[in-house]
Amino acid sequence: MTNIYCIQQRLRTLRSHSLAGCCTSCAVRVKSGELRQPEALGISAELKSKGYALLCVGFPLSDLEVETQDEAEVYWLQFG
């Protein structure tokens, strides 16, 4: 595992340019670790509980292992 600083640097490269937390373009699924995302308006509590997160408004609290997600798939899961 890498340290928090390295994770924050990598998250910056994966983050969407919108930084608004209202779409699913930067969606990931957290495989391990903890990510705080208080402003993630574009993802439901149900999807958050299944490990989905939005990197544009995410703050790593530990080392993370994330899996990038297809934006359209996450949007469909969210809105049907």
TrEMBL record:
GO cellular component terms attached to this protein's record: chloroplast
Pfam family, one: Fer2
Predominant location category: plastid
Family as reported in the entry's similarity comment: Belongs to the 2Fe2S plant-type ferredoxin family.
GO MF, one example: 2 iron, 2 sulfur cluster binding
Subcellular location: Plastid, Chloroplast
Gene that this sequence comes from: LOC107810328
Native organism: Nicotiana tabacum (Common tobacco)
Full protein name: Ferredoxin C 2, chloroplastic-like isoform X2
Keywords (A to Z) from UniProt: 2Fe-2S, Electron transport, Iron, Iron-sulfur, Metal-binding, Transport
UniProt keyword Ligase, yes or no: no
CC cofactor: [2Fe-2S] cluster
Gene3D superfamilies cross-referenced by the UniProt entry: 3.10.20.30
